[in-house]
Records
---
Amino acid sequence: MVEKGNEIEILLIEDNMNDAEMAIRALRKGNIANKVFHLKDGALAMQFLFGTGLYEGRNINEKPKVILLDLKMPKVNGMEVLKQIKSNDLTKKIPVVILTSSKENPDVEKCYDLGANSYIVKPVEFDSFSKAVAEVGLYWLLYNHPTA
Amino acid sequence: MPTKQKSITVEESLKKSLKEVSDYKYAIDESSIVAITDQKGIILHANDNFCKISKYSRKELIGQDHRIINSGHHPKEFIRNLWHTIANGKIWRGELKNKAKDGTIYWVDTTIVPFLNEEKKPYQYVAIRADITERKRTEEILESSLKEISDYKYALDESSIVAITDQKGIIKYVNNNFCKISKYSSSELIGQDHRIINSAYHPKDFIRNLWITIANGKIWRGELKNKAKDGTYYWVDTTIIPFLNELGKPYQYIAIRADITMRKEAEEENLRLKFELEERVKQRTEELEAFSYSISHDLRAPLRAINGYAKMLEEDYNDLFDIEGKRLLNVVQENAKRMGVLIDDLLAFARLGRKKLAKSNIKMTELTEAAWIEVTKSTTTKYTIKIDQLHSIVADRSLINQVMINLISNAVKYSSKTKGPKIEIKSEKESGSIVYSVSDNGAGFENEYGNKLFGVFQRLHSPDEFEGTGVGLALVKRIIDKHGGKVWAKGELNKGAKFYFSLPIR
């Protein structure tokens, strides 16, 4: 999905492959799919962002423009990933959008406290889901320019 | 002459003596009760006072012995001792209880003087008595009061924990029960103040209040936790009574206590159990919360996939499906959506259980009008709506809003297929509560199923007649229950339904 030389714009961290596929499809509809990189758990996300493990040697100064982060994941969950991102000078300025199944999730509040920039409820209905992902993805890519 | 003169002198001196004796006799007769008996005790003479007090005439007394006024009060030994004394020529003094003719009792302070013949044997006795009935009666009353007091003290000592302190609180007296419960000996306690048994359990204000009360001469009552010598604690129900001097200042305090340790321990145990139970409920609630979230997450993910992939199929392979294929695909999506709503409703219902009420004054007319607009903003059907001027109420605004929205949604939904749908919202004040009602002229229901309306997932219509998950009215009931109100409904099939809810007036 990542073309050589192409900067990764959206980092999608999502353990559910179906949700990931739907999210990517939604982003593709917004013509930004080619810049999406998908990681299927929090541990991999940490390795990717900080150039360790499987991603040892990766140029960590190439940062995604926005991170879409699922909360409920095995091994390292979304909240821990968020905490790491927001407490590291290298990554703390990357906007993070939380993906959650329910707005009732008490963790959403905690995520804001940890510095999350916004959140998307993943609705059962596909159309709403696509719309939400595409809109938020675009918003953070096009209208929000994080300071380098 | 001298002889005559001498005899005159003797006679005069005799006369003088006689006069003296007669004066004495007069004085004694006036002042005392006098009787003279022979050596056998037979009454030879009784003066007026004797007759008056014994209520016998002189005639009745003379020739009798003293058994005539015997009260039977004195033991035989006592009487024998009296006789023994006087028969031996000695004066007897004592107090005698006698019985008058009319049966009344009188007491006399008695002196019996024996008169002896040349052989030193008594030939008569003179008894001089004084009426001491009044004094004896007072004595008896005093004695019986004393007896009563000592009985009270005995009963109190048996039943209670008693201590007496001086005005400074220094212990002057403790009874056995005090020693038993405090495990101190009385010598360890006397001279100390009550700090010796202070448990440090009570706040300073509490103790200060106690002292202020009793120092002002008022009785203090309360429950105190004390510490025994061995470090164990005991509870006493305590009454402290101040005793005041002439200036109205307490000079001593008597504290009467009852051991209520068992009761207090039971109370404490109850509190502990209650706390434990609350903790457990809290824990369970948290578990349930986690479970609810997990359900909402785990059940939604596959639903999302079903719905999403069906949609992708529809989008990407549209040309390959005929009309029936598209219909089937649509059914899949619709049901996934429905289940999503169901999960949401169920979660909302569960969440309500732990929500705390945030009460405020609600202008119900405004709230209802806003709810009406919200419910009907996307409908095309024309309804006749009549919202009365509704009573305001103190309740949780967001929850009551939910109730109104649910009831209006129901009314709108079930009258949507009726020609000229009409909805009316009213309120009425009853004793202690306001009753609100939402009525429609829609599908209605048979009254016999009315009780099923408010159960979770209970429906009286199938989804293809009227959409719904069967949670709306259950939610209404739960909200109203939480407010201490009631919900009920009346209906008639195909004529309409009327839903009522009452909210208590604060």
---
Amino acid sequence: MKSIISVDKLTKKFSGLNAVDEISFDVKEGEFFGFVGPNGAGKTTTINMLCTLIRPTAGTANVAGYDVASQSSKVRENIGLVFQDTTLDDRLTAWENLEFHSVVYHVPARERKQRIDHVFDLVELSNHKNDVISTFSGGMKRRLEVARGLLHSPRVLFLDEPTIGLDPQTRRRIWDYLARLRSETNMTIFLTTHYLDEAEPCDRVGIIDHGKLIVIDTPNALKSRVGADVIHLSTTDDEKMKNLLETKYDVTVKDVKGELAFEKENAEEFLIRVVEDFKPYLTSIGVRRPTLDDVFLKLTGREIRDEDVPPKHSMSSIASRVKGGR
Amino acid sequence: MDLEAIYIIWLRDLKINWRDRGNLIGALVRSVLWLVVLGLGLRAGFRSVGGVTFSQYIFPGIIGMTILFAAVQSAISIVWEREFGFLRELLIAPIPRTSITIGKTLSGATWATLQGTVVLALAPVVGVSLTVTQVLLTLLLMLLISVTLTGIGIIIASRIVTFQGFGVIVNVILMPMFFLSTAIFPLPWLPDWLKAIIMANPLTYAVDLLRLVTIGLYDFPLMLDLGLTIGLCIILTTAATFLFVKEI
């Protein structure tokens, strides 16, 4: 399959700092690609460059066959975008928002009504077509934005943290729409998220940290890199237990958020031994199968949520940063 | 150039302006109040200029004020759109930026001209009788002036960051532009230093043109008025386009 996104040594500097540092990767046509990393790792900056919202400082990126720097209009015509922050016109109705979008994205006039109806169906908002956006809940707005992003049948759909700040029910729904979409079309989806569990259904996942792409592979391959299952335990004296465990079992113990964790094959059987050996010191113990969170932990030495900060990528801060960057 | 995009941007702005009924009513009430109350209130103290009453004298000035506020307010909506995210949808659309400025300029100008027309329709109330030619010329002038004023609005909008700034804009730019034109004071009454300020105000010449067409009075030569008004229209529209294209 041919690449629909190819990125070569893409770099973005903001006042001397490398927000994105020489990253290179390819996304194949029809692929569901997850771009994960903690807040501030460079995900949004990368997506902004791929969507032609900001110019790369160095390197090149090609999306849907067009160069993001020199053919931005062509790139824009072929991509759909769903941002972290709403970009709906809250004083127009849902239908008017989609109509506006279909015109500025050059959807042929005779196809507009049918396509608008279709995407309304997809996100189950047909009953709210004529409601003004200011009456919509946050979840409804995000669903409508997904619908709008699909309206002009883009070849690549970019979703920048699409479920941030949404209730679990709406998150579920958005994933259902995307699953349905993927079963019906060959659309490429480029997702950024800092919820690693959301990246599980991706075909491939790229992990970015401090502006550098650390690894890129299928979720299963990534998890097998972590190798074994993980035993995690809370104890009465972490410092002492860490040493005891390391000397006794010849393992490397990490201290994460007040919990000790180490890898072990066949952890469920090994658990019994740990309990027998250290019972007086244990307050709780458990086994976890590797998840993408563990992959991140293994590769960076810390948990992805450690870096959690309140979402600060509001429209105005992006606008001012972007303005300054150009 | 993308005509359909220009059209939908124009249409969307007009829809939004029209739906903001409170704002529209407020604007028209303000114009009527100025015209009727100020006109009547100061009638006694007004030394007749060219055989017109004070209401008649300020009539073209009030039209000027109406389109000034309407045009700038319409363009300032860009700040609102930036704050609430919609501007981003507009800026990333695969259309030339100039289509956006043109759409916004036309919508602001249309909206201002429509409001100006409502005030123009009050001509009989203040005893100004107009021929069809005068009405058509006034409409044309209003459109030209509105385009310029929308350009000013876009320039302001690309410079200010928050919507709270609009009150400041009204007090710091719009009210002085209105007062420091010949909208409500005949030029010969004023001291020289004030005359100098008024002559530096572009709105002065626009009001002078409106006054010439509606009641036949003027302070400056027609060619000066026309040259400055058209010249400014071109300069400000170009500047607005340039500043807006740089956005994001």
